[in-house]
Amino acid sequence: MISDEAKAKYLKDGGNHCPYCGSDEIDSGNIRYGDELWMLVRCERCEKLWKDLYKLSGVEEYHADEEE
């Protein structure tokens, strides 16, 4: 189980390390969707798995001539 403290640190640091062992050797898959958007992430060092959850945080205008 990921502690609330480890979750908070993971989010504060932008999800760039394992919330279990702190390693930056993590690998993720494709974003999946259903009732929520999520991505499976795995630590190469401790081999733990977790899901990164995504929420809509804003909206902005897009123009077709903009670089993607």
Describe this structure in words.
This protein has 68 residues and is α+β, with helices and mostly antiparallel strands. It has one domain. 13% of the residues lie in helices and 31% in strands. It has one helix and three strands; from the N terminus they run αβββ. Strands 1-2-3 form a three-stranded antiparallel β-sheet, with no helix packed on it. It is elongated, with a radius of gyration of 15 Å.
Topology:
Blueprint: H1 4-12, E1 26-33, E2 37-43, E3 49-54
Antiparallel strand pairs: 1-2, 2-3
Give the radius of gyration.
15 Å
Average pLDDT for all residues? 93
Query: What is the topology, as strand order, of the major beta sheet?
Result: 1-2-3
Number of domains: 1
Which terms would index this structure?
3-stranded antiparallel beta sheet, 1 helix, 3 strands, elongated
Brief digest:
This protein is of the alpha+beta class. The protein has one helix at 4-12; strands spanning 26-33, 37-43, 49-54.
